[in-house]
Amino acid sequence: MDVENTVAIVTGASSGVGAETAVKLAQRGVKVVVNYATSKAGADATVARIVELGGEAISVQADVSDNAQCVNLVEQAVARFGQLNILINNAGTTTFVDHSELDLLSDDIWQRTLNTNLLGPFYMSRAALPELIKQGGGDIVMTSSTAGLNANGSSIAYCASKAGLNSLTKTLAKAMGKHNVRVNAICPGLIDGKWSREGRGDNWQAVENFVKQNSALGKVSTPEDIADSILSVVSGSDLLTAQIIVVDGGFAI
């Protein structure tokens, strides 16, 4: 897909992978809607980075776990830029709970995790589809996780939500293919970012060292690495769809 002069929504773009993806898209000539749930300052900082590079962007608040807010987000994107071509479903949440501590995995954690990580991408995709069809097709990319492919992750609920997201990716790709809408997922392994570092606390260094020692490339991903992977999907072959793409430096080998 030739992304120049297209329009993208990036959910959860106030920091981390979302922010880097928004900036990299803008550098390719994409007009970007920077979504955030709570961090207006972070989203505004992402917009400022894009403007400094000569790009166009706006920030829009929306909690993707709420369907009405997803619809409004798409409406604001089209009202500002006149079209929508790319949707990056990046917003996510987790609560770090040891997998053996089942009693600590409360209903509230389950609902919050599933609502944001699984229902949110569905709501956003459903809201975006009519606009993508108007443009003759487009791209949806999910930021998933290797936690959806194995038994490792910040919590059992997080693993389940990402496994569901991988399934959603494939079923949406099959349903939307007739409209020339491609749906793919990027599955990062461990990412060296604020979220992982804060969640693992004093265990961070041990986890990072383990991943480096046991991966083919001997590296841990950065938000920029994952953003590059997302960009390669939307700017690559128009035949790429329904793919669950692992980006973990070869840790899973």
Secondary-structure map with pairings?
Blueprint: E1 7-10, H1 16-27, E2 31-36, H2 40-52, E3 57-61, H3 67-81, E4 86-89, H4 107-134, E5 138-143, H5 156-176, E6 181-188, H6 194-200, H7 204-214, H8 223-234, E7 244-247
Parallel strand pairs: 1-2, 1-4, 2-3, 4-5, 5-6, 6-7
Tell me about this structure.
The chain has 253 residues and is an alpha/beta fold. It has one domain: Rossmann fold. It is built from 8 helices and 7 strands. It has helices spanning 16-27, 40-52, 67-81, 107-134, 156-176, 194-200, 204-214, 223-234; strands at residues 7-10, 31-36, 57-61, 86-89, 138-143, 181-188, 244-247. The protein has a 7-stranded parallel beta sheet with strand order 3-2-1-4-5-6-7, sandwiched between helices. Helix 1 links the parallel strand 1 and strand 2. The radius of gyration is 17 Å and the shape is globular. The two termini are 30 Å apart. The mean pLDDT is 96.
Keywords:
seven-stranded parallel sheet; 47% helix; alpha/beta; Rossmann fold; 8 helices
What's the total count of β strands? 7
**What proportion of the residues is helical, as a percent range?**
40-55%
- Which structural class best describes the helix and strand composition? alpha/beta
- What's the order of the H and E elements? EHEHEHEHEHEHHHE
The geometry reads as globular
Name the average pLDDT.
Answer: 96
CATH superfamily: NAD(P)-binding Rossmann-like Domain
Low-confidence parts: none
Number of domains: 1
> What is the CATH first-level class name?
Alpha Beta
CATH topology: Rossmann fold
Instruction: Give the biggest sheet.
Output: 7 strands, parallel
